[in-house]
Amino acid sequence: MNNKNGFALIELLVVVALISIFSAVGVVTYNGYISNAKDKKAQSNFNQIVKTMNNELANCRINPSAKLFNNQYCNSLIEPNVNAVSNFFNSSTLTNPYDKNEKVVGSNLCNKGTVAISSSNVSGSYQVQYVSQKKDIKYTKIVESKWSSERTEQMSKEESYKCSTQTLTASASSAPKQTIYNYKPPHSGSGAGIIVDENGNMLAGQGAHACGSNCFDGTMPNWYTLDANGNKVYPGKPGSKYRWVMTEGASASGNIASSCGGGNCKYNFADNTYTVLNSGQTFKAGESIDSRKPIP
Fold it and tell me: Is the pLDDT assigned to residue 281 strictly greater than 70?
């Protein structure tokens, strides 16, 4: 009688099952490690941004002739605008750990890894926020400057905050699409503006103009210009088929420059962007000409 050594079918099945279990556990552990690492990096970006802002602004108290955020001197009469501060960090070595093609500083807190910078309730101060979707916590810190009108009582806050993809999608789909008739400027400051029709085409013979916020917010309903046929056009009047829109915003130092002279731009109401026709480059409206970057 011959004895043959080998594995029974049941033994092989047990080995395969064990390998599958160990593999699954390994994948879950690895994914958990990556998820934790990305969340920690994003929160580190948030803390680094707050620290850098505090250092930059504190330096102004020591040296009034210093330059902060690479674009404004400390002896300016106004604080650096939010766009200038945001651009400073988006041009730095900081990266979004969830997507290196996404900016570190943005406006949508529910975009993973995004840090939001905005003006706080106290004039001259900034609010910096970040949402950890892994922990469902929103972190808020206030950064004061020498331009702050008063002392902020609560400088830091943590609160429960859950980003709902379903809610965000529903809100986005139900939101009315922006047109010439419900246009809202990208921010409430001054900038370079153009007069366009409902399709975003510039009014013939009208170049770009530097203008205060009242050009764009609808508080100049009786101001008019003339079209090519000599007819009055009211770009600040609600319901008008022409509208003042902001292309470039003012720089941190208050300078206003434009690339839209001579009918050289086309405006997109849907997403508040404009295209410089002779270069084909598209930019986000409201950013200054010295800090803007083309949209890929």
Answer: yes
